[in-house]
């Protein structure tokens, strides 16, 4: 998840107005919608932790958005810093009525939904780096503009965190490889518009996936992810648990959402966990 620092009041940066909570609720929380509640907090440690702590008492579809996060968590215990109100920092609570072995597709589904929604609302070309990064193009260079973290919560729930850098300027980037929608020349950086687009896209993709009993082929998810995945067809280095390293070409996604890597020895290996580095050829 994205974290942020140095907030000030909600109108301290006029280029970064606060989200309009009441308007977002009117647009997204409806009787026929997946989204059952939507709350925006000025600051919190981690939206994922906050929702996970209430997973058993809340219904599916709870959305928690923070204008600022102070202790956000990402994969491999990483942090991602950004000024308050410079991005979308949110978590959603899902209780998938599909076989648990298919829940591994949820981070990939969220990536497809985010990329689809942002492409429509921000007018930027997006791609996905397996398994959980959203990439944009800044000056012809791939940059990470967002990340996804899915965690089991309670008896039957998953909390999915999503962080998207929206208005970060070059001098605010936490690392050179980071990017933002602003730097990718987005036609809109209105966070209300972007949040509505992302949550509506997520509702559609999640609904299709659940109706297909979590089947990635029948729901169209596997095809959509592969089509938008910048990792496939690239030489990669997979840094695996236990300090093992695997290099080769990323050739496919298997039925469980794992990345299939063709090694130089002629074999293939499916990677389900680890850090993937795109190698220059």
From TrEMBL:
It is an enzyme of class 6 (ligase). Gene3D superfamilies: 2.30.30.100, Bira Bifunctional Protein, Domain 2. PROSITE patterns: BPL_LPL_CATALYTIC. Keywords: Biotin, Ligase. CDD domains: BPL. It holds the Pfam family BPL_LplA_LipB. The keyword Ligase applies. Residues 28-210 form the BPL/LPL catalytic domain. Its EC number is 6.3.4.15. Transmembrane segments: none annotated. SUPFAM superfamilies: Class II aaRS and biotin synthetases. GO terms for molecular function: biotin--[biotin carboxyl-carrier protein] ligase activity. NCBIfam families: birA_ligase (TIGR00121). PANTHER family: BIOTIN PROTEIN LIGASE (PTHR12835), BIOTIN--PROTEIN LIGASE (PTHR12835:SF5). This is biotin--[biotin carboxyl-carrier protein] ligase. It comes from Streptomyces litmocidini. The lineage of its organism: Bacteria, Bacillati, Actinomycetota, Actinomycetes, Kitasatosporales.
